[in-house]
Amino acid sequence: ITVRGRAGHGSAGGVSAVEKLLVAKSAIDRLAAERAETKPGVLVNIGVVRAGLAPWVVPNRGWLAANINYDYAEAAEAEKTGRGFTGALVRERLEALLAEAAESDDWLREQRPELVWVKDVPPYRLGDGGSAEDGERLLAAARGAFRAAWGAEPEVADLFAWGDAAHLARLGGMPTVGMGAGAPGTSHTATEHNKVSNLRNTAAAAALAVLELAFPA
């Protein structure tokens, strides 16, 4: 979301893009609050906020970038209404909230915020690619391979974020599962890391799964 202000000297005044960006941000805050009620755990995150050049300059431009998650049911509902298997419902809601926020502000009513959608990466389920039978066979092979390589039972669940495995399932039409090797809880932090043993065990599990699929017992 990009907003425009009117530049000026900090001692003389202008229209601060920072203040107008906060008005635009209120639309995302409202969306996040709504989704916390209706879709708990399906989060909205503002990851970038930028405006201004120096403390003595009234900024004339500001922008923010956000990551908005949506779930499988929302994509399926959008598809039913002819808008594709996408986040169209969430996009439309934010667009409406942003329009309301702009209407509440004299400056933004005339200088409308610019909203650009960078990408839409839809979710997937095991049965989206190939047959249900093939999907279950893949999952069983992955479970057994993980158990043999790690010496422990795998945790099988939906990924809380997004992974490019969705492209294989949704566009490639093939059964797809993800087998993670990371250290949980450290993603995108200053301490993000992995362990050599994790990589070794996961590589072994992947190889064993391929063997099971190619040469079933």
Automatic annotation (TrEMBL):
Name the UniProt record assigns to this protein = Peptidase M20 dimerisation domain-containing protein
Q: Name the source organism.
A: marine sediment metagenome
| Highest classification ranks of the organism | unclassified sequences, metagenomes, ecological metagenomes
